[in-house]
Amino acid sequence: MQGTTKGKIKFIGFVSTGLLLYFGIKYFFGAYPAPPINDSVAAMQEYVQNRFYVIISVNVFMLFVYIIVSNFLYRYGKLIKGNMQYPPPDTDLPFSKKIVRGQKALDSANLCFIASGLIVIQGIIKLGIIVYASMI
Question: Which helix H or strand E contains 63, and what residues bound it?
């Protein structure tokens, strides 16, 4: 299967969105300057509380991103399983790919299903650990 221009545009858009998210998260962590060294305990507690709010909000946002990616992988696996072909017909790919049919296609579909579940579980566990650590 040949790579298409539409697939290359989607690939570049996906990579640039990921970089935008990365730099956005870096900005959130850099938004609060380091606490003054010779300051009161109240200032330190306020700094820690602000940092905690940033961490929780970023992780809730990333959980939504994980759910969206998981949904995409599940639908893609369902499409592969329905057509018994990987990559499925009418799929825009950025690069050339050999078409696989039969058991290898089913293995690819099962891999998509497993990755879909693991991504959501990882996001929930990560958020749970951070909330639990904040309660200690």
Answer: helix 41-83
Cα dihedral: 78, 80, 84, 88 (round 10): 140
Which position has the token pair 């696996």? 77
Residues 2, 91: Cα–Cα separation, whole Å: 10
DSSP labels, 66-128: HHHHHHHHHHHHHHHHHHTEESPTT---SS----EETHHHHHHHHHHHHHHHHHHHHHHHHHH
Whether the CB-CB separation of 86 and 109 falls below 8 Å is answered with: yes
pLDDT tens for the chain, 136 residues long, are 566 677 778 878 888 888 887 787 777 766 666 666 666 777 777 777 777 887 787 788 888 888 888 998 899 899 999 988 888 887 777 777 788 899 999 998 999 999 999 999 988 888 888 878 777 6
Could you tell me the pTM of the whole model? 0.70
